[in-house]
Write a structure and sequence with these properties.
The chain is of the alpha+beta class and 685 residues long. It folds into six domains: 86 residues, no CATH class; 64 residues, no CATH class; 145 residues; 96 residues, no CATH class; 86 residues, 2-Layer Sandwich (GMP Synthetase, Chain A, domain 3), CATH 3.30.300; 104 residues, no CATH class. Helix content is 15%, strand content 32%. It is globular.
């Protein structure tokens, strides 16, 4: 039985089957309309000559009526989607708006600069839009003390001895083992700098290579989390004339060199150049300001391999902040307590609007709050006013149009009449695919930065996206309504986390366990699948996307219990090649049948839209032989199916039997061997 459209997408309903669309209210093609009218001619207008070939005026009128009704029926059928959208909007589900691209920029000062230069948070940088039309603005997310110092030398310490390396030896093709092939406590990774003292802070971007047998991952701790026992702990020390001095670790996105990220350290003014103390017969060139990164205790799953170290790195987002803008009222056809105002710049990024209204506090009318000496009040942006109380100072924002809507005094406080009394103290605009700038985009600051040489971005921007299509919002809507913004069950997490990045195609949640099957109490592991690629490669998400997911859950979505440690790992894909023997129908085009079978099998194995229910391949599920036979047999032109064998990761399974996949892995279809024959022997369908 076909599943009703309102139950589509329920993963907890074993009887539910996917549906392609909403029910059709009216037939949309003119031929169906003409046929329905023609069936009534005999009863109502028997004098019309139905078989006249269109010479009769009545028959001609039916044809004209059919052509005119077709667009009306098409618009009527859109009411079903309109109804679903309005229901979701009332529930606060509005879909994902435009997302700004995030990129790491490296600020380089001239070597002749006398000292560090402060680059405050919100510094605006411009570059050409990725779409080729105009310019886009990026803003830095943190304060940066850019230093003119240069990384001149590296040293690898094992025990009491160290070996010097040139920075040029760092490269993706030959990464450096920071703590050796077998990291042990006492091993260290040294960085030597020349130039002025990097004071009061030093910011580094460390690029860590992913291991061959383990996909990249990103970890973000929830509130109150502590690193699990056994994980590596590092010491960051400055070599001074008085001996090693601990550097204040202000930020470590690399999590102890377990992943790529930015590290910010507090430094001291007495950091002087010295020869490396653990290099025998150290040359004069080793007289540098040395930073020691030592392994105190713990172990790594795989030895960290450093590909690149960049000075003066900071993240920038493709958005522009607008401040102190007076909002213009939107003219209404009929007077209503619910007033609307217009922001000047669009699109508006969600939850970035800060408003003040010069009017009495609505809560004072209900004796709920003491009056404030100032008449200005800060209002709060919400997804919907449906749950707002009469005195709640709430408003909603349409991201695309920039319209700010207030309550009517019943659902949310109403804004009283006035002139120039609603002010946006700040909001952010921008985002979209225009901010998906490539590497080496050539950023230029809007304001002067002293002693600036250049601003580079070694990697392309990640996370940029245009607004979510309406059909995607409707498809995800029921799951988001059930979650209600809370990550309680695994299904809630999988639905909510897709809002973190437009570069996510699917997410699978594992609670209290890791991808290798080990039990991890207090850990939430998310297996992330990227969006489909055009180059035929598996959709593995980038580390930037994984980081966006981790931060989204750790900082915005309530995860129970408090302190849950979030680990986001890229999905693992194993190549799958099928050997299929089939018998086509006698009059079928054999090459076309082979291509259709390959497409059907690939669609069935798809990690995002595949599987028996069309909602993605179940993580780690074996290849079911009977289901594969059914998929092939359902292809038009296939008369019967003979033999199917699966080659998983280069290992051939038993023909005509289920073939297991590695744990926590998705299949990725390769080059299938599909053999059409005239006669089949053995098992067939």
């Amino acid at each position: 039985m076909t599943t009703p459209w309102w139950r589509a997408g329920r993963r907890d309903d074993p009887d539910a089957e996917p549906v392609e669309d909403f029910p059709e209210l009216l037939a949309e093609d003119s031929r169906s309309v003409r046929a329905a009218v023609a069936g009534r001619i005999g009863a109502f207008t028997p004098d019309w000559a139905v078989g006249s070939g269109g010479a009769d005026a009545g028959v001609a009128l039916v044809k004209v009526f059919g052509e005119q009704v077709e667009p009306v029926a098409q618009r009527a059928n859109r009411l079903r989607e309109k109804h679903a959208r309005e229901q979701l909007r009332i529930a606060g589900v509005t879909g994902r708006g435009p997302r700004p691209g995030s990129v790491m920029v490296v600020v380089t000062l001239v070597e002749a600069a006398p000292g560090p230069v402060q680059v405050p948070a919100g510094t605006q940088l411009t570059t050409a839009a990725a779409t080729g039309e105009g310019q886009v603005v990026f803003e830095t997310t943190r304060d940066l003390y850019a230093t003119p110092a240069r990384l001149r030398m590296l040293a690898l310490q094992a025990g009491t001895r160290a070996v010097l390396l040139e920075p040029a030896e760092l490269a993706p093709a030959s990464p450096v083992l920071a703590f050796g092939g077998e990291p042990r406590p006492g091993n260290a990774f040294w960085l030597g700098f020349t130039g002025p003292v990097p004071f009061p802070s030093l910011t580094l971007a460390v690029q860590v290579a992913a291991t061959a047998d383990r996909q990249p991952s990103v970890t973000a701790g929830g509130i109150g989390t502590r690193p699990p026992a056994g994980e590596p702990t590092l010491s960051w020390e400055l070599l001074t004339a008085e001996g090693p001095v601990a550097a204040e670790l202000r930020r470590d996105d690399s999590l102890g060199l377990r992943q790529s990220g930015i590290v910010e350290l507090g430094t001291v003014a007495g950091w002087v150049p010295l020869r490396h103390p653990m290099v025998r017969d150290a040359p004069a060139e080793s007289t540098l300001r040395w930073l020691r990164v030592g392994l105190l205790f713990g172990r790594y799953d795989a030895p960290p391999r450093v590909e690149r170290v960049e000075l003066n790195a900071v993240l920038a987002e493709g958005a522009e902040t607008i401040r102190d803008e007076i909002l213009e009222p939107v003219p209404e056809v009929a007077p209503t307590p619910a007033r609307r105002f217009q922001l000047a710049r669009t699109p508006v990024l969600r939850r970035t609007v800060r408003l003040e209204v010069d009017a009495p506090d609505p809560a004072d009318l209900f004796d709920l709050a003491p009056a404030s000496p100032s008449g200005q009040r800060s209002w709060v942006e919400v997804d919907t006013l449906a749950r707002s109380r009469p005195y709640d100072q709430h408003f909603v924002v349409d991201e695309l149009s920039g319209i700010v809507a207030f309550g009517d005094g019943v659902r949310g406080a109403a804004v009283p009449a006035g002139f120039r009394h609603v002010k946006a103290t700040s909001y952010r605009t921008g985002g979209g695919l225009a901010t998906a700038v490539p590497a080496d985009a050539g950023f230029v600051p809007r304001d002067t930065i002293s002693f600036l040489a250049q601003i580079d971005n070694p990697d392309p921007a990640a996370g940029a996206a245009d607004p979510e299509p309406v059909e995607d919002v409707v498809a995800r809507g029921p799951a988001l309504v059930r979650a209600r913004g809370r990550a309680v069950t695994a299904a809630d997490l999988e639905a909510l986390v897709l809002q973190a990045s437009a570069e996510l195609g699917r997410v699978v949640a594992l609670t209290g366990a890791d991808v290798d099957g080990t039990t991890r109490p207090g850990q939430l592991t998310l297996i992330a699948v990227g969006t489909p690629r055009d180059d035929g490669r598996p959709p593995v998400p980038t580390e930037t996307t994984l980081g966006a997911v981790a931060q989204f859950l750790a900082g915005r979505v309530p995860v129970a219990p408090l302190g849950t440690r979030v680990v986001v790992r890229a999905a693992r894909f194993v190549p799958v090649e099928l050997e299929i023997t089939l018998r086509p129908e006698e009059e079928a085009d054999r090459p076309a049948v082979v291509l259709a079978v390959a497409r059907a099998v690939n669609a069935y194995l798809d990690p995002i839209d595949g599987g028996a229910d069309g909602r993605g391949w179940p993580l780690g599920q074996a290849l079911r032989y009977r289901r594969l036979v059914s998929v092939v047999a359902d292809v038009p032109g296939v008369a019967s199916v003979g033999r199917i064998a699966a080659v998983v990761g280069g290992r051939r399974g038993v023909p005509c039997r289920d073939t297991p996949l590695p744990p926590c892995a998705f299949p990725w279809p390769g080059s299938h061997l599909i053999v059409p024959v005239s006669e089949l022997g053995g098992e067939r369908r």
